[in-house]
Structure formats: structure tokens, C-alpha cells
Write a structure and sequence with these properties.
Elements: H1 2-6, H2 17-20, H3 33-40, H4 50-53, H5 61-69, H6 73-81, H7 87-93, H8 115-128, E1 144-148, H9 152-163, E2 167-171, H10 180-183, H11 192-201, E3 207-210, H12 221-226, E4 231-234, E5 240-241, E6 254-256, H13 257-265, E7 283-287, H14 291-302, E8 307-312, H15 323-332, E9 335-338, E10 340-347, E11 353-366, E12 372-385, E13 388-391, E14 395-396, H16 400-404, E15 430-432, H17 435-438, H18 443-462
Parallel strand pairs: 1-2, 1-4, 2-3, 4-15, 6-13, 7-8, 7-13, 8-9
Antiparallel strand pairs: 5-14, 10-11, 11-12
Helix pairs in contact: 3-5, 3-8, 5-6, 5-8, 6-8, 7-8, 9-18, 13-14, 14-15
């Protein structure tokens, strides 16, 4: 361990803030081969790999890192593929600092191994060298599974079930698969070409994706069963925005982060020739403290949003956004107003927003989330000028699946009730995982839930006769 302590962590190179705010290109560069091998050499190959315990999808971290150390980059990528279908995505957007890297034993004496950067390197290497997916297609089992939603949970479930030999059809309501990876996370954090490449790789596993197909409207869950599917996984996420519930919220110039980011990311409003309209403010205020709020603020800057402020009702210590993303935002010029809550949105001529009245807060006792509850400070009202307000205070599940499948039990916030270990719902054969169950969480947590559900689905279908053998067309 003494030798490992002396090796410095290889930090990735980042584009200067003044340059990167002018475009949507990716901010951090990946490792070079030499940097990746040097970072991998820091891993001490623990007998009990606690880093794996911190990974929701249980990637064999010491094994893929050891392969990078020896220069076996393709083999490292294939090792990752054994546990995740979205390695290039996870290497960029997962909060490794609070998961696998947090449980790395080197934390006790210095900086942990840069597991996320190494994951990104291996996945990018395999893609950029056009080495393809070398995982052989398994023998078909004769079972078929429908996956509803092509976001992180749905794609993970599809990949796992495909590797098991089941025929998988993914039904996606939007015109392109990827879910929040496509519509929510900006290009400068997650290039869409990478998402498309990860999705394309699923084709090698007999996974079919049908877009423009909103289950619950085009067809119900029950109708999918009637068509011959042996089981169904629901991973439709949490796409309905929450709002501030203050006067003036219906004024022109107030947007949910969902709408704003979807216009820019999925519909590419940032491109010069894009037909997609999007509001651009001279004074932009974003409400929220998570990654979505930071993504919105950094996007607004790049869209020419003038002065951009993130207002958050708690302090920096309670802010759930990744440390790296907040640092990038500060470097780029985003201003932060902590301990501030909106009271009223102010409008001017033609019903357009001109500002927002806020009140200072102080932290009281912890609430249900474990964070200290913000309490308004009497007499501390003040006004922030704004001609664009983006609300990024969280999301809730779309009720379309639950309403069109009356037998499904739901929880207090409208999500589907499902077993935390298996994803089993109140209806035999229907499984669910990700944000549709837990509410808005991280990409990797949704993937972990989907992986566990896929394993449970495999056990469920193998215990019965395949419906497809009865002659039903799937």
C-alpha cells in the first residue's frame, strides 16, 4: 500500500471556462492510454474490494482496472460489459464520489482511484477503435419480455435480459431512445453520440426498440400480455415536473427544467439551424439545488442567457448536486444564492416575468430527507430581477401506466409500488424499477434496480411455459 500512496491521482484535463461556455462540446477530456495505465496502477487490488459494494450495478472494479493497468483496454471494456450496458454513460454522469470511489480504501490516506474516469476510458477506447461488441449472442430461451421506457432503467433491463437469451422489445414514447440521457443531460456533460452508440450495441443481444409508442395510450400493459409477452418491465422514470406553487408562476418566461432541457438537448435548440424555439433571457434565475438545476444554469449560459443565478433554499452543504458540476458552474460564471426561497414571481407588460420576490431562510430541524428544513426569516424579503425563470425542484412519475393498469398499486407520490430487491409489483409478471418507483434519483441507482429486476424476471419466466410457443406472434 505504501507504493500506492506515493502515486498521484491522474486528473483529467478540462477545457478553459471562457472557451467552453461558447459551445456545447464536452468539458473534460478523457485519459490518454498512458494516463489511464498510470491511474490504474494506483489500485492496490484489495482482497475485499469495498469499491464494488459502493456500485449499484456491482461492476467488477478491480478486474477491469487491472486489465487497464496491463494495457488490455478492450478486455477491460468487455469486463465492464458483463455488468453494465451503459459504461460510457456511467463513466461521465454517475456520482462516483459518493458511491464506488467513496468506498475505495485509498480514501483513508489520500485520493481514491479515479474509477469513473477509468470506466469512461475503457468504454471510449472500445468505441473509438471500432472494435465492436465481442459478447456472443446467447442461445434463445423462447421467452419474450416487454420493456416500457428506453431510459437508463429500461435500457439496463433490456441489456440484462438480452444477455440471458430472452427476446426483448423496448417501447419508448419519444422519437428517440435514451430517456433522461437524451432529453435531460446536456451535450457538454454527455454527448448524444455516445448514448446512441450504447443503444445501438443492444441490437447484438436481440433487443428491438420501438419509438413513438406510449404504452398506456398506444396499447396498454394488458394488451402487451395478450400479444404474447411473458413478463413486462416498467422503467418510465419520473418525467412530470414539480412547480413552485407561488403567485405568478404562469407568467410568460417561467419554464420547467424538463421543458427547457428537452428543447435544448433532445430537440437540439442550441444548433443555429434548429427549428425548435427556446426562450433566452438576459437575467436568468434557476430554482433548485440538484444536478438538473446546475445543468439548466450552465445550459442557459451557453444559450446566451446573460447573468445566470441559481437560487437554493438550503446551504451549499445540503445541496445534492455533484461537487464537480457545481465547480464547473462557478468557473463558468453562474452565481449562487443560498438560503433563498421564492415567494412570488413578478410580471410586467404582456404578462412577461420581470423578477422574483424571494425571502431569506435559515436551517431548522432535519426533514424526511435527512437535510435540515429551510425556515423563512421574517422581514428578509428581497427581489431578484429575471426575464427567464427555470424551475428545477424535482419531478414525479407520469401516472399513465398506473392509470391504464388498474391493478397496479401505487405509492404516496404516484409511483409504482415494487419490491426493492426484485422489482416485483402487485401484478404477477409486471416488474418496475428506477425513478417510476423511487422518484427522481441517479442514473446508476435506476440501473441497479433494473438489473435486479431483470434477474427476478429471468427466474419468473423460466418457471413457466413461454407464451410464444403457443403460436402467438411477438
Amino acid at each position: 500500500m505504501a507504493a500506492a500512496k506515493r502515486l498521484p491521482r491522474q486528473h483529467v484535463h478540462e477545457r478553459p471556462a471562457a472557451e467552453r461556455v461558447r459551445d456545447f462540446d464536452e468539458v473534460p477530456a478523457g485519459y490518454s492510454e498512458a494516463e489511464a495505465m498510470a491511474e490504474a496502477a494506483r489500485c492496490i487490488q484489495c482482497r475485499k474490494a469495498t469499491c464494488i459494494d459502493g456500485c449499484p450495478v456491482l461492476i467488477k472494479i478491480p478486474e477491469f482496472v487491472a486489465l487497464i493497468k496491463e494495457g488490455h483496454f478492450l478486455e477491460a471494456a468487455l469486463k465492464l460489459k458483463e455488468e453494465t450496458a451503459l459504461a460510457a454513460v456511467c463513466g461521465r454522469v454517475c456520482p462516483q464520489e459518493s458511491q464506488c470511489e467513496k468506498t475505495c480504501v485509498l480514501v483513508t490516506t489520500g485520493e481514491p482511484v479515479a474509477i469513473g474516469n477509468l470506466e469512461r476510458f475503457a468504454a471510449d477506447y472500445a468505441r473509438e477503435k471500432a472494435l465492436g461488441d465481442k459478447i456472443a449472442r446467447p442461445e434463445a430461451t423462447g421467452y419474450s419480455v416487454a420493456v416500457v421506457g428506453a431510459g437508463p432503467a429500461g435500457l439496463t433491463a433490456a441489456g440484462e435480459l438480452g444477455r440471458m437469451g430472452h427476446r426483448v422489445v423496448v417501447f419508448e414514447a419519444l422519437h428517440e431512445p435514451g430517456g433522461v440521457l437524451m432529453y435531460g443531460i446536456p451535450e457538454f456533460r454527455l454527448p448524444k453520440a455516445i448514448v446512441r452508440a450504447e443503444v445501438k450495441a443492444l441490437g447484438a443481444l436481440d433487443v428491438e426498440i420501438r419509438t413513438d409508442f406510449p404504452v398506456g395510450k398506444a396499447e396498454t400493459i394488458d394488451e402487451l400480455f395478450e400479444e404474447g409477452f411473458d413478463a413486462i418491465f416498467v422503467g418510465t422514470g419520473a418525467g412530470l415536473p414539480r412547480f413552485l406553487r407561488v403567485p405568478g408562476e404562469n407568467l410568460v418566461g417561467v419554464l420547467s427544467a424538463n421543458e427547457y432541457l428537452t428543447r435544448v438537448n433532445l430537440m437540439r435548440a442550441y444548433e443555429a439551424k434548429s427549428p425548435t424555439p427556446v426562450l433566452i433571457g438576459k437575467e436568468t434565475v434557476v430554482f433548485g439545488g440538484g444536478n438538473v438545476a446546475i445543468d439548466s444554469a450552465r445550459t442557459a449560459l451557453r444559450m446566451g442567457g446573460g447573468d445566470v443565478t441559481v437560487a437554493y433554499r438550503r446551504s451549499r452543504a445540503e445541496m445534492p448536486a455533484r461537487v464537480e458540476e457545481v465547480r464547473h458552474a462557478v468557473e463558468e460564471g453562474v452565481r449562487f444564492e443560498y438560503l433563498s426561497a421564492p415567494v412570488e414571481i413578478i410580471g410586467g407588460d404582456k404578462g412577461r416575468v420581470t423578477g422574483v420576490k424571494c425571502i431569506r431562510t435559515e436551517l431548522g430541524e432535519p426533514d424526511a430527507s435527512g437535510r435540515r428544513r429551510p425556515v423563512p426569516v421574517p422581514g428578509s424579503d428581497y427581489t431578484l430581477p429575471a426575464d427567464l425563470i427555470i424551475v428545477a425542484i424535482g419531478n414525479k412519475p407520469n401516472p399513465i401506466i398506473a392509470k391504464s393498469t388498474g391493478r397496479l398499486e401505487t405509492n404516496a407520490w404516484g409511483g409504482i409500488k415494487a419490491d426493492t430487491e426484485t422489482g416485483a409489483t402487485s401484478v404477477p409478471g409486471i416488474y418496475a424499477g428506477g425513478d417510476i418507483v423511487t422518484g427522481a434519483a441517479t442514473v446508476i441507482e435506476a440501473m441497479g434496480a433494473a438489473k435486479r429486476a431483470a434477474q427476478a424476471i429471468d427466474r419468473y419466466v423460466r418457471a413457466r411455459e413461454p407464451r410464444a410457443k403457443s403460436g402467438v406472434e411477438v
